[in-house]
Design a protein that fits this description.
3-stranded parallel β-sheet; 7 helices; single chain; 3 domains; mainly alpha
Length: 220
């Protein structure tokens, strides 16, 4: 018996992976932007530091990470971009020096004399007075236009010396600066907000952990 119904060709549908297309589009856009920036360098002699800051901001906001530095970007909140080998070496040196730093003794100014940095960056600089009072900061140019940038800064330890905070205020006019010390002092007017607090593990009433301080100030 002949079939009265014509054969209906089967239609095969394939679900499009939108997440893959989105990543592909983002990668394409990033490549175009980077090419345009290099053209900008050649044609207008724009500072390479300015371009680096722009590229870093674009990469961080887009969620794109280069394959060769995905581990370091993920573990440093998009701050360091380096090979897995270099990043693992950096972490090893950090843990090694951090262990040495924790060997305490009774000498005065122990931290100033013995507590050495565990992490280095490409463009670190020191703000404030030399000796006790000043502090090191890392790649400050990456915060963008300093006069228009709104950033939150915690300065731990003061002893009534505010040259670091004053130097920061000159660079970041809109910064919100909080200074902490176990003794009571007063910040210079319009420079910072002082908090009498002892940074510790927060397991007793004499100290507070960094997480506790951030919660108290509404900075979580």
């Amino acid at each position: 018996m002949q079939n009265r119904f014509p054969l209906i060709p089967s239609i095969v549908t394939k679900k499009v992976d939108l997440s893959y297309l989105r990543k592909l589009l983002i990668n394409f856009i990033v490549v175009i932007i980077v090419c345009d920036l290099f053209y900008l360098i050649i044609s207008t002699r724009t500072s390479i530091l300015t371009v680096n800051s722009i590229v870093t901001s674009v990469i961080s906001s887009s969620g794109f990470t280069f394959p060769q530095c995905r581990l370091s970007m993920n573990e440093s909140d998009n701050w360091f971009c380096e090979s897995d080998t270099d990043w693992k070496r950096r972490k090893m040196l950090h843990h090694r020096q951090n262990k040495r730093n924790r060997i305490s003794d009774a000498r005065p100014l122990f931290f100033q004399n013995n507590w050495e940095p565990t992490i280095q960056c490409a463009f670190e600089q020191r703000l404030g007075n030399t000796g006790d009072g000043g502090k090191w900061i890392c790649d400050i140019h990456r915060f963008g236009n300093m006069k228009d940038t709104n950033i939150l800064i915690y300065s731990l330890g003061s002893s009534g010396e505010f040259s670091f905070e004053q130097a920061l205020r000159q660079k970041f006019l809109n910064a919100e600066i909080h200074t902490f010390d176990m003794n009571l002092f007063v910040c210079p007017r319009t420079v910072c907000v002082f908090h009498q607090a002892r940074l510790g593990d927060g397991r007793n009433e004499t100290s507070k952990s960094l997480q506790m301080i951030m919660k108290d100030l509404g900075h979580e």
